[in-house]
Amino acid sequence: MGALKDKVAIVTGASRGVGRSIAETFVREGAKVVICGRKQETLDQVAREIGPAVKPIACHVGRLD
Ligand SMILES: NC(=O)c1ccc[n+]([C@@H]2O[C@H](COP(=O)([O-])OP(=O)(O)OC[C@H]3O[C@@H](n4cnc5c(N)ncnc54)[C@H](OP(=O)(O)O)[C@@H]3O)[C@@H](O)[C@H]2O)c1
Fold first, then answer.
1. DSSP strand E in the chain: where?
2. Whose CA is nearest to atom 25 of ligand 1?
3. 13: region left, alpha or beta (phi > 0 left; psi from -120 to 50 alpha)
4. Contact status, residue 23 vs residue 33, Cβ threshold 8 Å
5. Rounded distance, CA 46 to CA 15, Å?
6. Position in ligand 1 atom list of the atom nearest CA 17
7. Model confidence over 17-39: pLDDT tens digits?
8. Residue 40 CB less than 6 A away from ligand 1
């Protein structure tokens, strides 16, 4: 516990599956985590479920803008 205290992580594909599990593990270890996926509403729900250490930001990783 606390291995990632004072760290900030960006996890893409974090609205479900492997990415979400990574985000949850990083938060449990003390990190602040930005979660990304294409749908803001889904990310907002995931952030509510994981807790305040998560910031949800929609982002399509295949698009430069
Ligand atoms: N599950 C396994 O056992 C396993 C094993 C080996 C490898 N993998 C690989 O690991 C990756 C994740 O697997 P998974 O099972 O967690 O997949 P998944 O359940 O389909 O989740 C994919 C995540 O990526 C997001 N995503 C998809 N396209 C995106 C884009 N263009 N920009 C931003 N986010 C995007 C999805 O959210 P939105 O749809 O809302 O964007 C979702 O959060 C896949 O590439 C899979 O092939 C999985």
1. 8-11, 32-35, 54-56
2. 13
3. left
4. yes
5. 6
6. 16
7. 999 999 999 999 999 999 999 99
8. no
Report how far residue 10's alpha carbon sits from residue 48's, in angstroms, rounded to the nearest whole number: 17
Measured from the CB, is residue 10 less than 6 Å from ligand 1? no
Among 19, 43, 39, 23, which Cα is nearest to 31's? 23
Backbone angles phi, psi at 27, to 5 degrees: -65, -45
Measured from the CB, is residue 44 less than 6 Å from ligand 1? no
pLDDT score, position 44: 98
